[in-house]
Amino acid sequence: MRKNLFTIALLLFAFTYVQAQEVAFEEYKLDNGLHVILHQDDTAPVVITSVMYQVGAKDENPERTGFAHFFEHLLFEGTENIERGEWFKIVSSYGGSNNANTSDDRTYYYELFPSNAVEVGLWMESERMLHPIINQVGVDTQNEVVKEEKRLRVDNQPYGNIFSEVKKNMFKKHPYRWSPIGSMEHLDAATLDEFLAFNEKFYVPNNATLVVAGDINVPEVKKMIQDYFGPIPRGAEVERVNIKEDPITEQINAVAYDPNIQIPAVLHAYRTPAMNTREARVLDMVSTILSDGKSSRLYKKLVDDKKMALQVSAFNVSQQDYGMYLTFALPLNNTSLEDLTKEIDEEIVKLQTELISEREFEKLQNVFENRFVNSNATIAGIAGSLATYQMLYGDINLINNEIDIYRSITREEIREAARKYLNPNQRLRLEYLPENDKQ
Amino acid sequence: MKKYILSLTACLFFISFINAQVDRSKRPVPAPAPTINLSTPQSFELDNGMKVMVVRNTKLPRVRIQLRLDNPLYASQDKAGVESLLAAMLGNGTTSISKEDFNEEVDFLGASINFGSQSGFASSLSKYFDRIFELFADAAKNPLLDGEEFQKEKDKLLEALKNNKKDVSTVSRQVSSALLYGKKHPKGEFATEETVQNITLADVKNYYENFFSPENAYLVVIGDVNFSKVEALAKAHFENWPKRNVLDVSYSDPTDVQYTQINFIDMPNAVQSELVVENIVNLKMSDPDYHAVLIANSILGGDFNSYLNMNLREDKGWTYGARSSTGAGKHVTSFYASTSVRNAVTDSAVVEMLHEIKNIRENLVENDKLALAKAKYTGNFVLALERPETIANYALNIEIQNLSKDFYENYLKKINAVTAEDVKRVANKYFLVNNARIVVTGKGSEVLEGLKKIDRGDGTMIPVKYFDIYGNEVEEPNYTIAMDPSVTIETVLNNYINAIGGKGKLNDVKSVFTTAGATMQGMQLGMEMKVTSDNKMSQAILMGGMPLQKTVFDGQTGYTMAQGQKMEFDEKQLADMKEGTGLFPELDPAKATLIGMDTVDGVTAYAVGYGDSKVSFYNAETGLKIKDENTQEVNGTPMKSSILYGDYKEVGGIQFPHTMTVSAGPQEIKFEVTDIKINEGVSEEDFK
Predict the structure, then answer these.
(1) Domains of chain B
(2) Which residues of B touch A97 (CB under 8 A)?
(3) Chain A residue with minimal CA distance to B7?
(4) Over the stretch B229-285, which tens digit does the pLDDT of each residue have?
(5) How many contacts, defined by CB atoms under 8 Å, are there between A and B?
(6) Does the domain spanning A252-437 belong to CATH 3.30.830.10?
(7) What is the CATH architecture assignment of A2-229?
(8) H helices then E strands: how many in chain B?
(9) ipTM score here?
(10) Cα angle value A388/A393/A394 (rounded, 5°)
(11) Do domains A2-229 and A252-437 have the same CATH topology?
(12) pLDDT digits (tens, 9 = 90+) for A127-148
């Protein structure tokens, strides 16, 4: 009973705190369709300018994979007013830093600056959107750089190809079947005209969200945005990918080899619903129960008690069209991969048949609250979340109230999601083995 | 066309607007620099010597705790790895709380508690801070170090080390430190399966006893918490931690090599080579050179715009990135420039890295590059202020590194005072290009030949020494394979001749006219090659049907025509061409020598030399020719090019390769043969 009282007090306490932490923002659209989000916070003299384009690996021509990621490199090559090779120098010369990243669903470019240089960031991002220079020299240089990136991040990395293997097996029709890094043959074969066409199609204001966050003067920044981005012409409407996968009805068994590893791995992947569904969040909680922290079920059983695994994890991969739920394990002490599968399956069956305990349920609340607090720790983190919620989830208010969805999930829903999505006949079982084992 | 009209309309529509508002051809002028406020943490000291600092920041309802033990360096020698085992075991229960209960409670609160061998870290929501502080203190003072947990962590570490043996970047990092500092130095040693096997539970306990003491401990608390609360908690939970003397062993100072050398580690699974250029650095943060070294390193390799990255990534496209770092602090540290490049350009990349280090030592940096590096440092300093940890780290550095109280207040002033002369001076003092180790980890069978031929600048080569993945010196690896004594030049050539159709068929061939095509970076390339049995040849490369380059030899004289310019063969080229025997050099064993066995992409092959510039490789099993390798001098530097042959198909009774992959330097073009004509389509006109 005492414990109960304690919890209620805590809940009240938490409530006030979360209120205090609310991220305030303002959003509007320019005439050319550019979505603008502003967030003002003057705790440090820092500002971020970022643009998210709704183009990722899934928007690529299947014969030209790797384009979105290639553009992540290409769009640093210069613009009509920023000479080739100057981009990074300009950012540095105002004391800023910048980067970009690409997923299956979108590409994200950003600059962080001391707050006095906000106009520089807006100028640069508008230059990139209005008139980037895309020519053969830039294409050739970045082609080599991307190849090195693939060698570094994928081919020379232990377990570096595992994700590509999973996607290839999990998706037969949907473009999630390839990885953002794409095919080097496709990139070699691509002509300059194809790159130009890709730019014209996707990198337009009506397919983008601009975020300016940090120590900003809102009226001044609004005027700058109108000045720099207002004149950019609207592009044609962008058609979204609409490809449905057939359900998986029997276990897909696959084997892949990696020359950079000595320890085999076994991976199970289940296809799950899109990221903005309630069920995707329920599955987030499932992976937390199974593998987040030393007291999680899989870790405790396989790593601690039975000493069968060197490592075991569960991930819920959230994406716009489909998600994936993955469990991954490395065996210890000559445990067979079949035994690992059996042990992991047992835990999933437990989730499907028994409700999680009240205490585990309370733990979930703490874990997700902690995650929520930390996700808003930096201006850059807030900017990224604002753009993601607005563009990919279709609801920007989730930055403040997604935690409420997690809080409302019940123990019964967790059991139901496990029953509905985590069955052996709905999955891929991948054995990822050292190249040496290949006969 | 449609697009053109659209943008034209857009232009008209917006033109007045643009004029009235901004001139986007000019960079915006930034507003005045923001003011910087460096607050100092509140601090106090416990009776046992532990120092506590508090940085209050209420932006988020969370608190972080950092524990740092500023102990002397220590090498575990034949028990290296004991520190990793201790780190893994700490934070898993205490003498009064079982491991299961401890982990369950931390996870339940959504918090985290982790330890290193000389550090600790915890984070929690502020509402659970009191309890997490208590658990953290208990775990640091009274850890549960039991046999079962020990064995489990030991097994896990052994398993992980097994995997590391194949990880090229891990091996590169470990061996380059071992070579630089020496394997017995704390900064040079690393755990291996052997050293981990030596470790017992008693060793782990000893390590804990020797080093976990409040004597050199700093506790930093950052976040949504009051000073008085931290003070009360620290007194309640840390004051009773008894002070113990920390083990202090001295080590001989590591020294640099007498002369620059390549240290090569062979890893046959590498698809990229890891390159490191390194030397020892002794530089305290309080040293007057400190700020100049930061700027010099930033210019050389500390940033995207640095010499190294601009050369190797942006100019050459050889790597995803090239960087350098120069350490500073109270312990010995290093200058470390590194990159990962594909096998084919390994030697060239070494040359370019050395070139850039020489460049910063010999030439004054341009003003705009210096200004850029300073601006970047200023920006980083401002951006770092967003993290409350920054204030704590600054205060901690002032204590640990024995800096003046105003070190960070003067930081930007000192950075901005660095001159081009300062940069050159410190580059010469700290980037020791003449006493550097160049540690290369990669696939020897593909990269070693080139590495052995890097000129020091005086006509002699940079010496190469060989090491295994543990940093032990070994013999030069031998990639040649012992050959069956019955194999002679005649048997190799005859096998080839028989494999492609037999001597009779080949003797009937007077000319071959080959047409091939390739795609290079999106462009179509064509090749037309005509060769006769009396040693005449012409080869034309076409792009989009237009001739790009043409080489012609009529048996006596020849020339190359490129971009409208005709260049007659020089004497060396003429001599080489005259050496040739036309279509099938294999028909004349007198001009060939058997060099030995080798492998080409994993296939065993016989290597046969023709003259001193060409080597051909014949598949030992099928007899077919799989590769030609040519060495040519370009501007005094030997350049290697090669052609890989594949997809043999029969034409007129003779097997011809239908793919030819031409590589020169980093470039690779794969030609696919579309047509082969025998004794047809070739006339004397073709060789004029």
Answers:
(1) 2-14+482-687 (2.50.20.10), 57-167+189-237 (3.30.830.10), 255-474 (3.30.830.10)
(2) 379-380, 383
(3) A233
(4) 999 999 999 999 998 889 899 999 999 999 999 999 998 778 789 999 999 999 999
(5) 252
(6) yes
(7) 2-Layer Sandwich (3.30)
(8) 20, 26
(9) 0.78
(10) 105
(11) yes
(12) 999 999 999 999 998 888 888 8
